[in-house]
Amino acid sequence: MSGDPACPRCTGEVLAVLRLPHTWTNASGRPVRGHGEVLLCARCDAGDPLATYFAVHGTARPEHAALLARLLRQWLDRVRPRAPDEDALRAEAEAWRRGEL
Ligand SMILES: [Zn+2]
User: Fold this and answer.
1) Residues 67, 82, 34, CA angle at the centre, nearest 5°?
2) Other beta carbons within 10 Å of 48
């Protein structure tokens, strides 16, 4: 596909681009909004099941929508920058639900 960005790591083929809204606080304490991009590269992410899917099928097929949704979600979970204490919060909520707190 022409016009697609090349992978900044290896200049290889980019299979998917994820744009994430991203807000941070600048030096003067004001919130700044922007977005971060995460790329799925055919070469760098060759071990990823989502990259494997595209290597095998070439393109997203409608009949694989459920599988693709699952692969995408797993990929997002791996690449998405997490809030630092998200896991701790979840563990705490889980413990609270079990009546341990
Ligand atoms: Zn790459």
Assistant:
1) 95
2) 20
If you measure from the C-alpha of residue 39 to the centroid of ligand 1, how many angstroms do you get, rounded to a whole number?
A: 8
Taking the whole predicted model, whether its pTM rises above 0.70 is answered as: no
| Distance from Cα 43 to the centre of ligand 1, integer Å | 5
Query: The tokens 């060759």 sit on which residue?
Result: 46
pLDDT, tens digit (0-9, with 9 covering 90-100), for 34-88: 877 888 898 999 999 999 998 889 888 999 999 999 998 888 888 766 555 667 7
C-beta of residue 7 within 8 angstroms of C-beta of residue 44: yes
For 15-26, how does the pLDDT look when each residue is reduced to its tens digit (9 = 90+)? 888 787 777 788
Q: Alpha-carbon distance 78 to 51, whole Å?
A: 13
Distance of CA 44 from the midpoint of ligand 1 (Å): 4
- Domain spans in the chain, listed from the N-terminal domain onward: 14-97
